Amino acid sequence: MDRVDLERPALLLLIPSESYRTADFMNAAERLGVDVVVASDERQALSEAAGGKTLTLDFFNLKESTEEAVAFARSRPLKAVVGVDEESTLLAAKISEALSLPSNPVSSTAAAKDKHRLREILTAASVPTPAYQLFSIDEPPEEIAQKVSYPCVLKPTFLSASRGVIRANDPEAFRAAFLRLLQILKNPEVRRKGGAAAKRILVERYIPGREVALEGLLRLGALSLLALFDKPDPLEGPFFEETIYVTPSRLSGSIQQQILKITERATAALGLKEGPIHAELRLNDQGIWVIELAARSIGGLCSRTLRFGVGMSLEEIILRRALGIPIESLEREKRAAGVMMIPIQKAGILADVEGVAEAKKVPLIEEVTIMIRRGQKVIPLPEGRRYLGFIFARGERPEEVEAALREANRRLAFVIAPEGKGGSS
Amino acid sequence: MIEITDIAKKRILALKQDQEERQEKKVEGLRLVVKGMAPNVEYGLAFVEEGKKEPGEIVVETDGIKVFMEEKHRSFLEEVKIDFINNLERNGFKVDNPKVVLPTPEIPKSPPDLESPLAKAVQKVIETEINPAVRSHGGYITLIDVKEQIVYIQMGGGCQGCGMASVTLKQGVVTAIRKAVPEIVEVLDATDHAGGKNPYFTPGK
User: Fold this and answer.
1) Residues in chain A closer than 8 A to B200 (CB atoms)
2) Residue B88 has pLDDT above 80, yes or no
């Protein structure tokens, strides 16, 4: 596996340098015994020593990066191209299309990344989705505030993980939210990622209700359910920080079926055909609403909650699908599993983390992983884009798993110092 | 020799029966897979359907249970203990490998052999090729040991806890070492990545 066999088609993994998923995808590829070429948006330290096993591609310059990848594939044939995160799915679809490899259509992948286009397509297909309006950032917020109904949610069309998503209940809150979102969109890195989309703000009707997340796999347009997660914490704003995901869902079987059917309609409307999808839906008296639908798998380290068959990871399933390797079973293990994305409560410098050992002692807790190091900056939503860490639990029943996650989180304490103050809080 | 505890054996046999009934396929044994060496050593257990031995696999029979594993991992897995934990804190199979100490590095218990020709050849690659390159990311690689053609390394500085550490290891370090020293069959990362203080790439959305 460590020698480059130029005749043997390789797997091209497009991994953003700040991905949470690198190790999980690399391990899955190793388990499958496939030759891997890693393309990242930053040059790898050992790129020369890697001898053609790494590439540096600008994930946002689709044309040039596709050309580079196609040129690379002339000397190193590629069997599949997989974008592991939101940032790289569109380039993966472009390269796949250029190399005639099975993939989602580029237009569908692009639509799934564009929240406004997603709303347009779902609305046209009569898939329940929030009513929406698109505005330019150049319009005066006071005027827009008179054009929308309340409560509403403001969001960028291209960012993920609830970044920049803010609820407003009245015109005054709308103006404040608009100006706050404007600051996020003016960030040079955000502007570069968004391009023209960084000049637009989507305003949607706020949909009350409980939220679920659906993880699925598309093969030739047919959707298979991988897992349905309950999100037991209310997500009512003003910011929408993800916390607990627990599977299996405690919803009734018939409602779960309806959720799957609506997600199938949404993926069909978008024209997605291959690979993982991650959907977020809300349930209330009016029905089931598709809030998000992405042509990628679940983010962060959350996929570590999932095991299929007798121990297959989600990443292995994704790679098997891409490489055309049979997947014996998509059946998730029988036990309940959950993850808590540890919220960032305030901005500053992470000075210390206490209670990790105590948190790990909570029954059913499998792991507590702190991702941000001491001395690093922490930024809460809506500006932030990181989690403090992840807590994982597994047990017989979802209720037990949820309780374990909450207890473990209760035992953790994060000392966050004001920026520029150094050590203590 | 691989050890399977009594409780693990009972559990395996019960699951085997369940698997055979559910899928109507005869199970021949258990596959023990090394799923990842870095940043965390991870094992996978899976049932092997009759006649589905993979090329490159060997079979070790322990207490009536056939354990399938990759030939290249024979040495690494030869002393593992497969246990089944069922208490308030844990419920599931547990693979203990005396060659691995988690989360701290898997440093072989016997004194490191860094004076052998093989170790010196590996050290030379690290010093002349790998470390000058990873230094650009504030990182460094330390050779811990070379045992039975397996290299044990640790990552430090910007590499320790780096989000791309597994790419550095699998695409870079392994390639460079095996290119220069073809006798090496495997490179294992013995780094405590959770202890990294200043990783070059920190994951974030």
Assistant:
1) 45
2) no
